[in-house]
Amino acid sequence: MVEEENIEEACRKAVEEDDGPKGVCYCFWGPIYWFKMLAVEMHWSFVFGVVSIYGINQGLGGALSRIGTEYYMKDVQRVQPSEAQVYSGITSIPWIIKPIWGLLTDVVPIMSYRRRPYFILSGMLGVVSMLFISLHSKLQLVFAILALTAGNLAGAVADVTVDACVAQNSISHPSRAADMQSLCTLSYSFGGLLGFSISGVFINLIGPKGVFGLLTLPAALISLVGILLSEPQVSNFAYNEVNQKFHDAAKSMWTTLKGPDVWRPCLYMYISTTVSLNINEGLFYWYTDSKEGPSFSKEAVGYIFSMGAIGSFLGALLYQNVLKNRSLRDMLFWTQLLFGLAGMLDLMLVQRMNLRFGIPDYLFIVIGEAVSQMIYRLKWMPLLVLCSKLCPSGIEGTFFALLMSIGNLGDLSSSWGGGLLLHVLNVTRIKFEDLWLAILIRNILRVSPLCLLFLVPKGDPNAFMLSTKDEAETSEPDNIELASLIHSVDDKF
TM segments (predicted)? Predict the structure, then answer.
């Protein structure tokens, strides 16, 4: 009883102060205090929803889905790596049109709730789409792509709904915005670590289609989040005014977006993502090739990607504890530069330089994957914090989804651009002579966004907030700087 009271007292102090308990014991109790602090301030169902969707559905489920899809396209559908890049972009389209789902959750409540029904419906869609793939022995490619797209649609709707909850809480609890983004990222990274660690084993035991059957469980958990989420009801909603509400939301979104201190970082986010050409399919086919590549087993591939998840997890910890108050522009400069340099590890691997130094392929690629994902995480977390602080009140889900869809559109452009590059260089299922050139071109393009850093603000993103309507009316539009949107920032992918 006394111990419980001590924990409660420590939790209350953690809520009131940013300085939690220090020392050796903090390594164990610190995360517990932190989780409990968030649960006290935001409600436990919000924390449960973030961990369930980011950690279990997107982290663990996303890892299983990624490895399952890689082997499904390679071994079941037997497509070329450049084609797999294109199909990957097609199935990600639901993530690009996230503002549509954001508008629905913000403007159109279902049965008097804005968020809960969307969680429930998206979970049901995810279960059906995963079962469709897993239960068909000879599914045609076009139907497989449609089912994968439906699965991504379920994930995108759930993601934009929980993002709306995060953005809404970031506005009502601005001092906890970085903590909430860290909760999202740490949950995602830990789930990804677990998912990648077991993915190769499950691929080997039950095959890609069996893995899709397992993915019905994370999808079903989304529906459970909708059932348990604490949310106030919307009373007397006028459905006959939905069109007007859509118009008002779109107008508010456009008014916010066209501000130079909003669209400039968005432009940087899109360009920096697009030019980092995605050639992962070419690398994956090379990893598993028995002649020119190292011929990694399914278990080895899963463990390799799990090291990337560890790197991502370490990046989130490093940001939360050391770098979250650093200047946004400085963070982006160093992470973008290091991201390009880290890509050279892939070039050394494909050119077999590691063997000349006596470093085995597996060890070298594990190090490279961990380093690359850690830097990638550090690159995106401050931008996520910034995006969450730029959302206008009332359309949090819509605007945050719009900002994230800009990044997703960059991912699509990167994937298709990478597929085109692999096609032009004739990198196929069995031909990898020019894969090194594709890697070199990608690495050079990765550092090119450094010349566009003037598009992002210099300050700390934790301090940025949109001006209120009254503030906007009393100031010149040209003077609305992100630094004057309120204080000063963070990173992630």
Answer: 44-64, 118-135, 141-162, 183-205, 211-229, 267-288, 300-319, 331-350
Alpha helices in 291-434 (DSSP H): 298-318, 328-342, 344-350, 353-356, 361-389, 396-424
Q: What is the pLDDT of residue 479?
A: 31
- Provide the pLDDT for residue 229: 86
| CA 491 distance to own-chain centroid | 12
Q: What is the mean pLDDT of residues 333-342?
A: 90
> What are the structural domains, with CATH classification, of the chain?
1-40 (no CATH), 43-485 (1.20.1250.20)
Under the banding of pLDDT at 50, 70 and 90, the label for residue 131 is very high
Residue type, position 5, single letter: E
Q: In whole angstroms, how far apart are CA 164 and each of 16, 57, 102, 373?
A: 25, 17, 8, 26
Q: Which residues contact 426 (CB under 8 A, 6 or more apart)?
A: 433, 434
Relative orientation angle of helices 361-389 and 328-342, to the nearest 10 degrees: 160
Task: Tell me: pLDDT of 3 over 60.
Answer: no
**SS3 state at 110:** strand
Residue 313 near residue 376 (C-beta atoms within 8 A): no
**Over the range 202-236, which residues count as b (16 or more CB within 10 Å of their CB) and which as e?**
bbeeebbbebbbbbbebbebbbebbeebebeeeee
Paired tokens of 60: 């663990």
Residue owning tokens 């050079």 = 444
| 489 vs 387: CA distance, rounded Å | 10
- Over the stretch 391-400, which tens digit does the pLDDT of each residue have? 666 666 677 7
28: amino acid identity, one letter: F
pLDDT at 396: 62
Calculate what percentage of the chain has a pLDDT beyond 90: 27
Quick one: pLDDT band at residue 91, thresholds 50, 70, 90?
very high
Which of 378, 263, 373 is CA-nearest to residue 328?
378
How far apart are alpha carbons 31 and 471 in whole angstroms? Answer: 38
pTM of the model: 0.74
Whether the Cβ atoms of residue 68 and residue 199 lie closer than 8 Å to each other = yes
In angstroms, rounded to a whole number, what is the distance separating the alpha carbons of residues 180 and 166?
Answer: 7
Distance, in Å, from the CA atom of 61 to the CA atom of 211, rounded to the nearest integer, reads 10
Which residues in 254-288 are b (16+ Cβ under 10 Å) and which e? eebbebebbebbbebbbbbbbbbbbbbbbbbbbbb
Least confidently predicted of 320-329, 378-387, 390-399: 390-399
Note whether 209 and 67 are within 8 A (CB): no
Residue corresponding to tokens 């800009």: 406
Give dist(CA 388, CA 173) in Å, integer: 11
